[in-house]
Design brief:
The protein contains eight helices and four strands. With 248 residues, it is α+β, with helices and mostly antiparallel strands. The chain has two domains: 84 residues, Chitinase A, domain 3 (Roll); 112 residues, Serine Threonine Protein Phosphatase 5, Tetratricopeptide repeat, CATH 1.25.40.10. The chain has a four-stranded antiparallel sheet with strand order 2-1-4-3. The chain starts with 9 loop residues before the first strand and ends in a 6-residue tail after the last helix. 32% of the residues are buried. The mean pLDDT is 90. It catalyses: [protein]-peptidylproline (omega=180) = [protein]-peptidylproline (omega=0).
């Protein structure tokens, strides 16, 4: 009984997932997610919003709506495996994003969504990965019920930088170099000496023909990681392009 979940609301469900041979691969007594945020397999994203609190449903999911063509290591799902889910909708409540939360809860929510983005990225669904990374940033930047302690503030900063670097990687996979560059620059505003963001920014500037800027950024990256073969290669390529002999 009760209303079905509305867009943006958070749900709690009990989930059992089994293979065709009956082997149980997934068991979660209280899985919490917001439908539409990409935090769970698509069978649950699509199915749970049709349910009412207290209802038990069975969803037979073809592999595109479960763990996809490659399957999964954790849980252990073979490639192209259909799954049968038994789902009990336990609770529906307003979503957590606009609400003030404890810093530790924001960190957990941000980490959960970033890991889901990594799940999508590894399977080549870069648009879904980018959506999850953006949702992670929104969770990390949301209001809190108490001031951050020094350790929490540092962890929030580190998670934001990781998310922004991941956003840049996903944007590049989607062919959006300008958006990728903007994500790198946002990461560097938080952590000016982040090696990953410096390298990618240098590469993107070089691709745009902004060689002088690229060289400065890459030299800074090399100061932080003198042994990096990738940075040495990028700087050598720039030097050859800028050499007068290269045009003769």
């Amino acid at each position: 009984g009760g209303p079905r979940p509305l867009p943006g609301q958070e749900v709690s469900v009990k989930v059992l997932g089994a293979l065709e041979d009956g082997g149980l691969v997934e068991r979660d007594p209280r899985l919490i997610f917001v439908p539409g945020h990409g935090d769970v397999v698509q069978a649950l994203e699509l199915g749970v919003p049709t349910m009412q609190p207290g209802e038990v449903s069975f969803f037979l999911a073809a592999f595109p709506y479960a763990y996809g063509r490659p399957g999964s290591r954790e849980p252990d799902v073979p490639p192209e495996a259909p799954l049968l889910f038994e789902v009990t909708l336990l609770e529906v409540r307003d979503g957590p994003d606009p609400q003030p939360l404890l810093p530790a809860v924001r960190l957990r929510l941000g980490s959960q969504r970033r890991e889901r983005g990594n799940f999508h990225f590894a399977r080549g669904d870069f648009a879904a990965a980018l959506r999850s990374y953006r949702l992670s940033l929104r969770a990390l930047d949301g209001p809190t019920t108490a001031p951050h302690g020094p350790e929490e503030e540092e962890e929030l900063r580190e998670q934001r930088v990781k998310c922004l670097n991941n956003c840049a990687a996903a944007e590049l996979k989607l062919g959006r170099a300008e958006e990728a560059l903007a994500a790198c620059e946002a990461a560097l505003r938080i952590s000016p000496d982040n090696g990953r963001a410096l390298l990618r920014r240098g590469q993107l500037l070089a691709e745009q023909g902004r060689d002088a800027e690229a060289a400065l950024v890459l030299r800074r990256a090399l100061e932080l990681d003198p042994a990096s073969k990738v940075i040495h290669t990028e700087l050598s390529r720039l030097a050859k392009r800028q050499s007068p002999l290269s045009s003769t």
